[in-house]
Amino acid sequence: MQQLFPARIATDRAAWLDLLQRKGIRGEANLDAVYGIYSDDGVLIATGARYRNILKCIAIDCAHQGGSLFNELMSGLMRDVFACGHHACYVYTKADARDAFRHLGFCDIAHVDDTLYFLENAVRGLPHYLQALRGQYVAGSRIAAIVMNANPFTNGHRYLVEKAARENDVVHLFVLSEDLSQFPGAVRLALVKAGTADLANVHIHPTGDYIISAATFPAYFLREDANIIEIQARLDARIFKEHIAPALGITKRYVGSEPLSPATAIYNAALQREFAGQPALVIVERQQADGDVISASRVRRLLAAGDMEAIRPLVPPTTFYYLTSGELP
Questions:
Q1: Which among 123, 143, 169 is the end of a domain?
Q2: Which H/E stretch holds residue 173?
Q3: In the UniProt record, does the keyword Lyase occur (predicted)?
Q4: How deeply is 193 buried, as exposed, middle or buried, from its count of CB atoms within 10 A (0-12, 13-18, 19+)?
Q5: Cis omega (within 30 of 0) on the bond before 206?
Q6: What is the mean pLDDT of the chain?
Q7: What angle do the packed helices 317-325 and 185-195 form, to 10 degrees?
Q8: Within this chain, do residues 176 and 116 fall inside the same structural domain, yes or no?
């Protein structure tokens, strides 16, 4: 198995795309590494790639299926994933390839019809994550959840959390763990904790790999087309409904309306359909300031322009302190 460079080497790209297209797979640009196996006469007969710890673009030439080539390819890809410091490996596949991955130790997490199956290979995977969540269960008759990126935490986020806290006994607030945003995960988590410290019934968690992560919902980060966003949003919604919500007794999930982000609007619509009232989805109109929605992207634009006074009314004092001092509150 050798590394391919389809983004830089024309011959690699041509051979790679040809094999993918013959297998009905489209090439992707958002990949960290691409690998291939060549026949003795120099023909690309197997390929696979990864984005972080997600395996993608896996294809075996029809004339070479049924042998050890798939195992050789997958073993090499998984070694690469774990050598990069990841502790879990994820893959999307169709129904007809699911068993091949299960034979290599992958376990089902969720699926959308027969369109998309999501599997993981991990030393401590979803069962361990759910066990840890169950250890953080807080009793209450009305238990809600919010999931946010908070890049950074704004008064709009605070408004949503306050509303959920008033209307419920317990609120579980999940902050995206991925370090794919302008503000690192640890900073965003700290700002959310500081900005909600006075709300005693709000309990804050990192999302890990199972809620809007690059594993469960890469289109959220990669800006792929609307159809892919919808399918992956449905998958993410099912994971939340079938696994996360039962672990904590969650009966409602709050989201902000999305007039600005098409991808997030598609995501909210997928939640609505997949939840079907269990848990209930509560869509809250976004808070505004000076006629515009208070959004993290608005704050980031003002920050880039150096307009700190325009930022002040849009964020809690704890966030403003960090933005002006560089120190966590």
A1: 123
A2: strand 170-175
A3: yes
A4: middle
A5: no
A6: 90
A7: 140
A8: no
Tell me: do 114 and 229 sit in the same domain.
no
Total domain count, the chain: 2
**228 and 172, same structural domain?**
yes
* Identity of residue 124: R
Q: Are residues 99 and 224 in the same domain?
A: no
The CA angle 137-192-303, to the nearest 5 degrees, is 160
Q: Please write the tens of the pLDDT for every residue from 151-209.
A: 999 999 999 999 999 999 999 999 998 777 788 889 999 999 999 999 999 999 998 88
Q: What CATH number did the domain enclosing 31 receive?
A: 3.40.630.30
In whole angstroms, give the CA distance from residue 159 to residue 156.
5
Picking from 228, 211, 227, 230, the residue whose alpha carbon sits closest to that of residue 268 is 230
φ, ψ for residue 279 (rounded to 5)? -75, 165
Instruction: Using the Cα atoms of residue 62, residue 63, residue 65 and residue 69 in order, give the sign of their dihedral.
Output: negative
Give pLDDT, residue 226. Answer: 63
Among 64, 93, 123, give the residue marking a domain's end: 123
- Which residue segment(s) compose the domain that 297 sits in? 132-325
| In a shared domain, residues 219 and 159 | yes
Closest CA to 142 of 123, 169, 121, 164: 169
- Separation between Cα atoms, residue 298 and residue 51, nearest integer Å: 29
CATH number of the domain at 202, please.
3.40.50.620
Measuring CA to CA, which residue among 138, 137, 142 is closest to residue 163?
142
- pTM of this structure: 0.86
